[in-house]
Amino acid sequence: MTKLLKLTDVNLNYNTDNNLINVLQDVSFEVDYKETISVVGESGSGKTSLIMLIGGLEKVSSGKIKFKNFEISSLKEDEISEIRRKDIGIVFQSFYLIPNYTAIENVSLALEINKIKDPINKAKEILDKFGLGKRLNNLPSQLSGGEQQRVAIARSIVMKPELILADEPTGNLDSENSELISNILFDYVKEENASLIMVTHDNKLANLSKRIIKIKDGKIE
Ligand SMILES: Nc1ncnc2c1ncn2[C@@H]1O[C@H](COP(=O)(O)OP(=O)(O)OP(=O)(O)O)[C@@H](O)[C@H]1O
Ligand SMILES: [Mg+2]
Questions:
Q1: What is the structure's pLDDT at 1?
Q2: Which helix (H) or strand (E) covers residue 54, if one does?
Q3: CA of 47 to the centre of ligand 2 (A)
Q4: Does any ligand 1 atom lie closer than 6 A to the CB of residue 16?
Q5: Distance from the CA of 43 to the center of ligand 1, in angstroms?
Q6: Cα 201 to ligand 2 centre (Å)
Q7: With 0-12 CB in 10 A as exposed, 13-18 as middle and 19+ as buried, what is 141?
Q8: Cβ atoms 192, 199 nearer than 8 A
């Protein structure tokens, strides 16, 4: 069976002050359909960089990233955005909601961009499911951290992506909210047969994934 995702000898370099930093070094791994993976490693080891590359938000310096039949590393910007809009959902530690849009508008926007019918009702449905039925018209600044993260996750999964990339999705949350968020993520991948790649510093959370990938100084251990 083909893999959902395949990284081959991926390198990422940054050039700062005429200094070449090799942030990721010959990273290769594969992700199966329906697989859940936790990415762990020290601060600065390259975890966020890895998520950015897979999500096409950053370009590889060398190597290949293949998502389904697409060679992410060689696609044009608009082709990558199309994949990201529909097939890859990204969840960040700091939620990146649109500040002047309400909870329901933040979610329905993702549907409108993809020309999905009835975006408001579909957004309402998923926010209801996430326990936010009474917070639909709150702006992000009027929501708690856990609530904002639930809105952000609703927004990133409302198109039912096949892959979720989550970069410390519970990093800013207390243990009760962390559990809520991890339940939402793991329930989603189970219900929708999706895959999850999640960066986390939380061992308990990391252990919920089928596989753990450890990064050290830009290399997989
Ligand atoms: N735009 C950039 N230009 C230069 N160096 C960068 C840039 N972005 C990241 N780096 C460097 O790349 C390395 C990896 O950064 P990255 O954000 O991937 O780490 P991380 O594993 O996610 O760390 P943390 O756990 O603290 O979030 C760091 O040493 C960082 O300083
Ligand atoms: Mg990081």
A1: 66
A2: helix 47-54
A3: 5
A4: yes
A5: 8
A6: 10
A7: exposed
A8: no
CB 4 within 8 A of CB 31: yes
- Token pair 């929708």 is found at 192
> Cα(193)–Cα(12) distance, rounded to whole angstroms?
30
Summarize pLDDT for 78-136 with one digit per residue, the tens: 999 999 999 999 999 888 999 999 999 999 999 999 999 999 999 999 999 999 999 99
CA geometry: angle 188, 186, 199, nearest 5 deg: 115
Residue-wise pLDDT tens digits, 20-50: 999 999 999 999 999 999 999 999 999 999 9
Q: Decide: 200 in ligand 1 pocket, CB within 6 A.
A: no
Q: Is 206 in contact with 186 (CB distance < 8 Å)?
A: no
Q: Residue 7 pLDDT > 70, yes or no?
A: yes
Q: Would you state the torsion angle of the CA atoms of residues 107, 109, 113, 114, taken in this order, to the nearest 10 degrees? A: 30
SS3 213: strand
**Owner of token pair 């089928």:** 210
CB atoms within 10 A of CB 81: 14
Amino acid identity at 2: T
> What letter does residue 176 receive in the DSSP assignment?
H
Q: How many residues does the chain have?
A: 221
Among the four given CATH numbers 3.30.300.20, 3.90.1700.10, 3.40.50.1220, 3.40.50.300, the one describing domain 5-220 = 3.40.50.300
CA quadruple 72, 166, 12, 219: dihedral, nearest 10: -120
Domain positions in the chain are 5-220
